[in-house]
Write a structure and sequence with these properties.
275 residues; Alpha/beta knot; two-stranded antiparallel ribbon; 8 helices; elongated; binds 2-(1,2-oxazol-5-yl)phenol
Length: 275
């Protein structure tokens, strides 16, 4: 038995060809991941294989019709193990954010079904009716608009598949990832280097060649703090003072980050408090 079954219903199955490549492709080849692609148009009944129609209430664009989606989801449910239901994941800019936490949550489920929409989205009744039969998660991969949900499915499946047991090298493979629960929660990974030790006149930071594992870990942590401060002030605002050792708080103060008692958050000392 595979670790996870994934069904995807789409009008562009060929858009999901990348699932045959690299990490996800290998997980499938090894039998760890069982992916089933379905063409939504196979559940249409008219000669034109119509999947969309004009929106009630007017407005631009087209909306995906409920009947093909209803029949497709019925068929997906019937295709899986008796008595089990998938978690339905619907990519949409209106959904909750797809984060590492959500990827972890979904990676623990044995069966996922994805419903990527084209056009302006799927008739709302499809989502509502599905939610009476299975868990439904509407999720967005970021604050931008795509032409359809297929690329979002690729993003989500890759983020989920690499968390499945045995898909990456070993149990420690995820520990140092940006956003990994634990020491890397709300933290971005710092820079990485490999051989040669000097390239185009640029040297690898000496500490990394020193063999002092404790000092290297501390340096990496400081680099992670600096990067997060520079690129993601929203993450800094979530940091709790208690999560840091005394040494780490010193490193933060060197970066100009001090705990603001009144605000209850770390604040750049150069940054004025808003009135
Ligand atoms: O923009 C979209 C269109 C269709 C389905 C999903 C999306 C989207 O998902 N995350 C961001 C945008």
């Amino acid at each position: 038995m595979s670790d996870m079954r994934i069904d995807v219903v789409t009008i562009f199955p060929e858009y999901l060809e990348p699932l045959n490549v690299s990490l996800v492709g290998k997980a499938r080849a090894r039998g760890q991941l069982d992916v089933h692609l379905h063409d939504l148009r196979s559940w249409t009944t008219d000669i034109h294989r119509t999947v969309d129609d004009t929106p009630y209430g007017g407005g631009p664009g087209m909306v995906m019709k409920p009947e093909p989606w209803g029949a497709a989801l019925d068929a997906v449910l019937a295709a899986g193990p008796e008595g089990e239901v998938p978690t339905l994941v619907v990519p949409t800019p209106s959904g909750r954010r797809f984060t590492q936490d959500l990827a972890q949550d979904l990676a623990a489920r044995p069966w996922l079904a994805f419903a990527p929409a084209r056009y302006e989205g799927i008739d709302r009744r499809v989502i509502e009716e599905a939610a009476t039969r299975m868990p439904v998660v509407e999720a967005s991969i970021g604050d931008y608009v795509l032409a359809g949900g297929e690329v979002a499915v690729l993003v989500m499946v890759e983020a989920i598949a690499r968390l499945l047991p045995g898909v990456l090298g070993n149990a420690e493979s995820h520990r140092d990832d940006s956003f990994a629960p634990g020491a890397m929660a709300d933290l971005l990974e710092g820079p990485v280097y490999t051989k040669p030790a000097e390239w185009r006149g640029r040297e690898v930071p000496e500490i990394l060649l020193s063999g002092h594992h404790g000092k290297i870990a501390q340096w990496r942590r400081e680099q992670a703090f600096a990067r997060t401060h520079a690129n993601r002030p929203d993450l800094v605002a979530r940091w709790q003072r208690e999560s840091f050792t005394k040494k780490e708080r010193e490193a933060l103060s060197v970066l100009g980050l001090a705990w603001d008692e009144a605000e209850g958050r770390f604040r750049s000392v150069a940054e004025p408090v808003e009135e």
